[in-house]
Design goal:
Blueprint: H1 9-28, E1 33-35, H2 42-46, H3 49-52, H4 79-89, E2 96-98, H5 103-117, E3 133-138, H6 142-151, E4 154-161, E5 164-165, H7 167-176, E6 180-185, H8 199-206, E7 216-220, H9 238-244, E8 251-256, E9 268-271, H10 274-287, H11 293-303, H12 306-335, E10 341-343, E11 352-356, H13 361-370, E12 373-375, E13 392-395, H14 402-431
Helix pairs in contact: 1-14, 5-6, 8-9, 12-14, 13-14
The protein binds pyridoxal-5'-phosphate (PLP).
Pyridoxal-5'-phosphate binds near residues 38, 186, 191, 222 and 268.
Length: about 425
């Protein structure tokens, strides 16, 4: 069928009838399919099996300086792991803190520290400010927004454009509103749109002139090395750019090996200026006596250097690419040309972002749920879980095996079509 908008009412009713009969069969089946979160599949986790057996004996537990990694100490990580991950992030080891297994945890702690103690340039802790606001490019990562909600940070939605957040909006708000203390950014393969920030966008970030002197860019480099294809876009290094513009303290960069090795047992990273790192370590010194250094050792011994880590990423890509292609193929096959949905075609990362007709996303997620397909809740990609157009849906192709993905996508596209036909019929009825 062609573009739904051009189709007559009788044909639309016939289409709905046929779609509904397919839908009823999905509802009757007991199959349950999950496309909610961007988790690596079991076959991806198996790529890191070598790491499990890498430390077996007492003698294996010492770092390159002879430090016993079974014991307390080394607050910011073991030297060889700092060297490896500094190279991956393009920073100096002294700009880096290695944490536990979760970068989200480090982001949360960074916000919490600012609330309790303030940042380097803060006049008072954020918790004592009358209002704190964060800019939230959206669609974005629901858990960034959840941190803001928990701390009572007011979220201001900033539109995402092709090459990053709308920097006109960012510049205006950051330079005029003292309550704007932060912005969330996923600069490479943004969650969920797959957007890669252009050099111009990164340079404009580095050139920001914030009204709040303790403003911070939360630069979440979760997908820095998570390319799906040989074509690997490079983003500018924000810390270098900020150093050039004389604002070295303006950025906190985060990353982790969650989707390189194990999300449950990876290594998280926080990189920033040397002064910020010293400030953070001073507070961390009271919080912990040190991270899991044996796990850092395992990672260094597994990879040795950036090249071998990049080889592992190629193996991930070989597993993920067919899954992404399956989702894209079925979207095109079932929805292409109908004028009822647009979707991203990312070069990396973990998500495909689908924009359906305004007002249809919640309906589609509800339909899918009854048809045995769990999706990320509609609205989750926007601050406060409220998508103003009710049109964005995040698909996570990584976890299900390809057969299940095909099944889930067939059900999904039927639900998208049902919601679109229902909407068009209602609109025609209203205008008749
Ligand atoms: C943009 C982004 N940041 C952070 C995370 C979580 O990272 P971690 O496992 O290091 O806490 C995710 C997970 O999906 C993510 O998409």
């Amino acid at each position: 069928m062609e573009n739904y908008a051009k189709v007559g009412k009788t044909e639309l009713l016939a289409e709905l009838h046929e779609l509904n009969s397919r839908y009823e069969s999905y509802k009757a089946s007991t199959v349950r399919l999950d496309m909610t979160r961007g988790k690596p599949g079991a076959d991806q986790l198996e790529l890191s099996e070598k790491m499990l057996g890498i430390i077996q004996k007492n003698e294996d537990c010492f770092d390159e300086n002879g430090f016993d990694c079974r014991n307390y100490g080394l607050l910011d990580g073991i030297p060889e792991a700092k060297k490896l991950f500094a190279e991956v992030l393009g920073v100096q080891p002294e700009q880096l803190i290695l944490g536990g297994n979760s970068s989200l945890n480090m982001m949360y702690d960074t916000v919490a520290r600012a609330f309790c103690f303030g940042n380097l340039q803060s006049e008072r802790p954020w918790g004592q400010e009358p209002r704190i606001k964060f800019l939230c490019p959206a669609p974005g990562y629901d858990r960034h927004f959840a941190i803001c909600e928990q701390f009572g940070i007011e979220m201001i939605t900033v539109p995402m454009l092709e090459d990053g957040p709308d920097m006109d909006v960012v510049e205006r708000l950051v330079s005029t509103d003292e309550a704007v203390k932060g912005i969330w950014c996923v600069p490479k393969y943004s969650n969920p749109t797959g957007t890669v920030y252009s050099d111009e966008v990164v340079r404009r970030f580095a050139a920001l002139n914030p009204k709040a002197k303790d403003f911070r860019i939360f630069w979440d480099n979760a997908y820095l090395v998570h390319d799906l294809y040989d074509e690997q876009p490079q983003i500018l290094n924000i810390l270098e750019e900020c150093a050039k513009t004389g604002r070295p303290d303006m950025v906190y960069m985060f990353s982790s090996t969650s989707k390189i090795t194990y999300p449950g047992s990876g290594v998280a990273m926080l990189a920033s200026s040397v002064d910020n790192i010293a400030h953070i370590k001073e507070k961390m010194f009271v919080q912990t006596i040190g991270p899991d250094k044996l796990n850092q050792l395992r990672h260094v011994r597994m990879f040795q250097n950036k090249e071998s880590l990049m080889l592992q990423m190629k193996k991930h890509a070989d597993i993920l690419r067919p899954k992404f292609q399956t989702v894209l193929r079925i979207l095109e096959r079932d929805l292409g040309g109908r004028g009822i949905a647009n979707w991203s075609n990312p070069l990396g990362g973990y998500f495909i972002s689908v924009d359906v007709l305004p007002g249809c996303a919640k309906r589609i997620c509800a339909l899918c749920s009854d048809a045995g397909v769990a999706l990320t809740a509609a609205g989750a990609t926007f601050p406060y879980g409220r998508d103003p157009l009710d049109s964005n849906i995040r698909l996570a192709p990584s976890y299900p095996p390809i057969g299940e993905l095909e099944e889930a996508m067939e059900r999904f596209t039927v639900c998208v079509r049902i919601a679109a036909v229902e909407k068009l019929l209602k609109e025609r009825k209203a205008s008749a």
